[in-house]
């Protein structure tokens, strides 16, 4: 390893060579420190209370998509689409969110729903918990036009 590091330092035009192990997590703090040392302070482009230029619906759909990929891995393709049909913030009540998931094939719909709707319920619960954590507000996550199902695939 020492020979490779010396060769790399001599053969390339880099500021610094930092040893990192993805397997054991060694050197991660060194990389973070190096990155921070290279950043320069500049003007703020947004007020401090603005976290992104994207609307809330974008984050909701991305959270649900992430949970789909984490839960179903290779069973559901990356071509699935999550649409936020309705998003209502309600004072003194949980935010109301309606979501639909669009997949390419009926077999993928069956996989998403699972036996007795268990996979869909697990997906909805994981999504709702992350949405609540992200927005720091309690929410009700429903699907499509049917209020009894937590998510609906079409």
CATH superfamily membership of the largest domain: K homology (KH) domain
Shape: extended
Instruction: State the CATH class of the largest domain.
Output: Alpha Beta
- Largest sheet properties: 4 strands, mixed
Helix and strand composition category: alpha/beta
Measured distance between first and last alpha carbons: 53 Å
Report the sheet-strand fraction: 5-15%
Q: Which segments are poorly predicted (pLDDT under 50) over 5 or more consecutive residues?
A: 145-154
Helix content: 40-55%
Named at the architecture level, the CATH assignment of the largest domain is 2-Layer Sandwich
Q: Give, in order, the helices and strands.
A: HHHEEHHEE
> What count of helical segments does DSSP give?
5
Q: What are the key terms here?
A:
2 domains, alpha/beta, 5 helices, 15% strand, four-stranded mixed β-sheet, GMP Synthetase, Chain A, domain 3, 154 residues, disordered C terminus
Provide the fold topology.
Blueprint: H1 2-11, H2 28-38, H3 56-72, E1 81-88, E2 95-102, H4 106-113, H5 118-135, E3 139-143, E4 152-153
Parallel strand pairs: 2-3, 2-4
Antiparallel strand pairs: 1-2
Helix pairs in contact: 3-5
